[in-house]
């Protein structure tokens, strides 16, 4: 992204301002299919999130495949939650009421309108269901995927840039964002050429820093469950300040404040409580000498160098037992043969002719040697 000189002017002065241009297109048209860049940004975020989460899950003793199993539940749930948040909380007036021309518009997600807070909340519920299904420790899993989630959000925010939406207040800063006056999102109360705070860029950078911070602290200092709650707290703080001081797009209000201010504030409170509670729980377990539960159930065991199921381990133990028994039989046979060979080599001993060997209740008798008889 290049910073260029804009020919726009503001009432504050007549000098040209450096600015960030907005893309002139927001989608690709491939025959009958229209692919929005916003969707590509979200897809890129999901791919990066899965890659990082699978890597981190394997590092703590899980299997990479389980991350994709949980994602099959979490991603659809997150999409439903994202759309529901936008329709029910962000902009319900556009979908419900007597003046709505299309009563099914709330289902048309391809026309835009999703909310990340709903995506994370309902997606977490889907992940919880999957973790119970696959016998995965939910707290450990949440810690592993938290950096990937906030990194995915950093990618997804660039979709707002392509759509020329969700920008902030007017600014004269050299990184002000250009918004086309022909765009339906340009605020009518401002003159043409007005530059706006690029809130998409602020939040993307905030999330990018957060991903590295969660990885660093989680690997060195945090207890089980704290990495995820720190993510909730961290994201809530960043979103709160952007909503309070910068955002000007249409939103429902509650007690004079944008509804997103209340939801981001709730994230801060919830994240702080969860973070402290996870730390207290971990210290209590350590004081009682209770070890943390395995990250996965007994059906799957994993080490960094191998991934084996319990059934495979049982088969290996059984095969090893069979091999040990066979080796024991061979060893006994060798010992018997060696004893027999040693006995045959002793002086004064020889094999009894076959016709004189007695069987049954009587034992075989060796030939009597007169001079070895004891005297009475």
Task: Chart the SSEs and their pairings.
Blueprint (H helix, E strand, L loop, with lengths): L3 E2 L12 E3 L6 E4 L2 E4 H23 L4 H27 L25 H18 L4 H19 L1 H6 L12 E3 L16 E2 L2 H22 L5 H20 L7 E2 L2 E2 H30 L11 E4 L2 E4 H35 L32
Helix pairs in contact: 1-2, 1-4, 2-3, 3-4, 4-6, 4-7, 6-7, 7-8
Overview of this protein structure:
- This protein has 376 residues and is an alpha+beta fold.
- Helix content is 53%, strand content 8%.
- The chain has nine helices and ten strands.
- The strands form four sheets. It has a four-stranded mixed sheet, with no helix packed on it. It has a two-stranded antiparallel ribbon with strand order 3-4. Strands 7-8 form a two-stranded antiparallel ribbon.
- A hairpin with a 2-residue loop joins β3 and β4.
- α1 runs antiparallel to α4, α4 runs parallel beside α7 and α7 runs antiparallel to α8.
First-last Cα distance: 118 Å
Q: Roughly what is the average pLDDT, rounded to an integer?
A: 83
Helical content class: 40-55%
Biggest sheet, strands in spatial order?
1-2-5-6
Strand residue percentage: 5-15%
The helix/strand series, from N terminus to C terminus, equals EEEEHHHHHEEHHEEHEEH
Q: Specify the structural class.
A: alpha+beta
- Secondary structure tally, helices: 9
* Overall shape: elongated
The counted number of beta strands is 10
* Biggest sheet features: 4 strands, mixed
Rg for CA atoms = 37 Å
Unreliable segments (pLDDT under 50, ≥5 consecutive)?
A: 1-16, 300-314, 356-364, 370-376
